[in-house]
Amino acid sequence: MPRALGIDLSTQGVTALLVDTDRGALLARARAAFGPDFPSRGHPEGFLPGGASGEVHADPLLWLDGLQLALDRLAQSADLSQVAALAVSGQQHGSVYLADGFQLALADPDPSKSLAAQLAPFLSRPTSPIWMDSSTVEDCQAIAAALGGHQAACDLTGSAVTARFTGPQIRRFARLEPAAWSRTARVHLVSSFATSVLAGRDAPIDTGDGAGMNLMDLAAGAWSPAALAATAPDLARRLPPVVPGPTLVGPVSAYLVARHGFSPRCQVVVGTGDNPSSLVGMGASRPGQVVVSLGTSDTLFAAIDGARADPAGLGHAFGNPMGGTMSLVCVRNGSLARDAIRRELGLADWAAFAAAVDAAPPAQSAVLPLEHDEITPRRPAGRVAVGAPVSGPSLARAAVEGQALSLRLHSRWVGTPTTRLLLAGGASENPAIAQVFADVFGAPVLRLGVSDSAALGAALRAAHAACGSSLADLEAAFCQPAPGIVQPRSRLAPAYAALESALAAALR
Ligand code: XUL
Q1: Statement to judge: residues 468 and 493 lie in one domain
Q2: pLDDT in tens, 241-269
Q3: Number of H helices, E strands in the chain
């Protein structure tokens, strides 16, 4: 009876999901939240408050403590000795810097002590920059110049040189802290770091997460010597190898066997980023459907045929863990902006917000609510309004329409028509928001029956790569949409097309 475990290390916590792939059943779920579960660490949202130059870092030792707590909690409701395979999904772009000797610390930790305590002496940088960091503007310019400009960088790596990506983060560190850089023997991503710890050996990076670094030749699925040279001295020897998604890393560590009760035969599959993992967990790893995930950040992603790059340099192309590539558009002002508008309008809860969206007439105006500086489109905080003037509670509808129209506009480079839209994330449960997305994209909207799509994707990847389960069977068992398809209202299409053009013009 193959049991597969998916572990998602997100910005705010760790979610572990155990599934039985024969019965198509979810067996157990456990979660550790970095803020509420570790109040004395003082990171209520899971990361360290922003620095003066846009730095946003997190504590990699808190990630390890969160991982252990989630496994302890999972062991209370499930027998971990029955787990046949596991894989990790990690928030993308975050990086961990380790000094020589870390391999030994990984291979032979003392089961009576925490992983964090034993790995702490091997951090050559005490904190990890994460995806919210925007401190690398100068480094992005330098890397882009060395690679022949942003367009050339995008053609090579799948993305223009992007502030939150790991390459620019590495360059800034090597430039500002050369002594610490010279002590750094290995740079890991969140996914490959956690995978290394679980497998007790230095793990590779997959092409899904590797493409979020501006260091990988996307078409070749290998590190690009030119990008490495443009980033930091002696980078090649500090990076683990890059491998395709279905690669086995080896059995779990002796530590996991002794401390958490895993079988020594449990296999670890290479980790990937949370967006590539969600692509699998949503049952969307083959082209044709588009996923919109409405969370702290809103993301839009889809499997794509061949390799493509966004000529505007805002969208990204990553490796698809199931083969080929995927697109990603990431918007920083997601739930944060919706929530700011809800509070501004004095709406007590999301039901009241949905009622305000429903009460206003559709496709009259669009407001792009940027509470913080935005990455897609690249703009300072502030609101961009098009169409009829907006007042009072109709701002709720105009803001959701503005967000949906902007995602539509900034994903047009992908080129594939949207046959159906899979909506995920907290706000997707709101029927009024789902209807706006159906109308704006002109496609039926479905919602996934199971939440935690990143952790689920990790479990399905583990079962596929290590237990030989077929992807089609796994999708049929775990990725069925919830009942109720939201159909688009085609009569609104011309008005939304006009608003999208107006928004494009206003953003130029
Ligand atoms: C994607 C991105 C975020 C992070 C955090 O490029 O920056 O979606 O993966 O979840």
Answers
A1: yes
A2: 999 999 999 999 999 999 999 999 999 99
A3: 19, 23
